Amino acid sequence: MEDCLFCKIAAGEIPSNKLFEDDKLLAFYDIDPQAPVHFLVIPKQHIASAAALTEDDAALLGHIYAVIAQLCKKLGVDESGYRVVTNVGADGGQSVKHLHFHVLAKRSLAWPPG
């Protein structure tokens, strides 16, 4: 999508502090972190939100969660815990219309959020 911020980041048109990249995904640190560890994982393919996912995206979602687990282990937060969040729509707090997963760790995360 031409005007999508995350598509531009995935294409390398906008710089990011990359944590992981392969042919399907990009993980990078959030520019406004809400926890000592806060990174985003995005598919390189434009998908508007979790509401747009279908059964055909099952392998992509499995890959996303496997990469999140690997990165959390690498960052040493796999045992202390972390939160994975994806927002959908305006009421859900989605500010960029591209599927993305926030991973937050290294602080106590209250429930319910927000």
From TrEMBL:
| A Pfam family that the UniProt record links to this protein | HIT
Catalytic residues (UniProt): H100 (tele-amp-histidine intermediate)
Q: Which residues form the signal peptide?
A: none
Extract the InterPro entries matched here.
Answer: Histidine_triad_CS (IPR019808), Histidine_triad_HIT (IPR001310), HIT-like (IPR011146), HIT-like_sf (IPR036265)
SUPFAM superfamilies assigned: HIT-like
Motif: Histidine triad motif; annotated at: 98-102
What is the protein name stated in its UniProt record? Answer: Histidine triad (HIT) family protein
Name the source organism: Gemmiger formicilis
